[in-house]
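Deliverable D2.4 — example input (structure tokens):
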């Protein structure tokens, strides 16, 4: 069955009207909160010796007073993630008006020594 140009135009117009009338939800994010106290992450010795590195991504829930309430692993090696979480839970951020969520990436580079 062939659709006429007018019918097709009408369908496109109806779709556009419906699409534009639906509400759009935009997740608003605060500006990143400044880290006031950063506790050094301990690189697991066995992984460093075996040249196993990577990046751990964490979702960090920061209370209004700047202390960390909780962390969630978003990606990365599970052993490195455990070490990153242990450290980041001790960090202190700048106080804010409310609790907020920030994403943090922690890089583990086996070529980087603790004295660097």
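Example output (designed residues):
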């Amino acid at each position: 069955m062939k659709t006429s140009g007018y019918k097709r135009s009408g369908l496109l117009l109806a779709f556009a009207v419906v699409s534009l009338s639906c509400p759009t939800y935009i997740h608003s994010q605060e500006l990143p909160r400044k880290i006031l106290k950063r506790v050094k992450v301990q690189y697991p010795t066995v992984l460093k010796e075996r040249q196993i590195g990577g990046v751990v991504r964490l979702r960090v829930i920061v209370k209004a007073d700047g202390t960390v309430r909780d962390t969630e692993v978003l990606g990365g090696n599970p052993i490195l993630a455990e070490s990153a979480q242990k450290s980041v839970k001790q960090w202190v951020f700048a106080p804010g008006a409310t609790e907020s969520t920030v994403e943090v990436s922690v890089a583990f580079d086996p070529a980087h020594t603790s004295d660097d």
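The two ends are 72 Å apart (CA to CA).
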